[in-house]
Specification:
Elements (H helix, E strand, L loop, with lengths): L1 E4 L4 H7 L7 E4 L1 H4 L4 H14 L2 E5 L3 H9 L8 E5 L11 H11 L3 E4 L9 H10 L3 E4 L6 H18 L5
Parallel strand pairs: 1-2, 2-3, 3-4, 4-5, 5-6
Length: 166
């Protein structure tokens, strides 16, 4: 399980996850995108007491990556960021974001890969996975039909590409 904390009560959120099999704790984008480096460093340290990995979710992917590059933010174990063909909720092109992730050597989980339903699953997954920078995907599902279509498309693409973990 990947859990998020903040922005209202990040320490209280951490307490909610005690005793659960949490693999990663990420600061919510509303926190990541406005907090100072020292604030985030303290939260990452506390998160690592709850889970093996600690990192960030961001709503401003290039902004967060540039802050990391400049040393303004402590290095996380991973980052979750919007990544899709349409540039939906992205502050830079997918190519720029992929290049920066490679430069930083930072594992990333892609979110908004389907651009909030604006892209079909096959098109969205083929695009996102082609860059080779995503270690995981966060996918929202609202119905059984949607789950079958989405995960069916993903399973067939992963079988063909041999994506790690497929």
């Amino acid at each position: 399980m990947v859990a998020t904390i903040g922005p209202e009560d990040p320490l209280g959120d951490l307490k909610l996850y005690e005793g659960l099999d949490v693999r990663a704790v990420l600061t919510h984008g509303a926190l990541t995108d406005v907090a100072s480096g020292p604030e985030l460093e303290a939260l990452l340290e506390m998160a690592r007491e709850t889970a093996p990995l600690a990192g960030y979710v961001t709503h401003e992917p290039m902004g967060a990556l540039k802050r990391l590059e400049a040393g303004e933010l402590p290095r996380p174990d991973l980052i979750m960021l919007p990544f899709n063909k349409l540039g939906y909720l992205m502050d830079a092109s997918p190519i720029e974001i992929a290049e920066t992730l490679r430069h930083l050597g930072l594992p990333a989980i892609g979110k908004k890969v389907l651009a909030a339903g604006r892209l079909g699953p096959r098109e969205a997954f083929e695009f996102a996975l082609r860059f080779g920078v995503l270690s995981g995907l966060a996918i929202g599902i609202v119905s059984r039909r949607e789950a079958e279509e989405t995960f069916g498309a993903l399973a067939s693409i992963l079988a063909i590409t041999g994506w790690p973990g497929a």
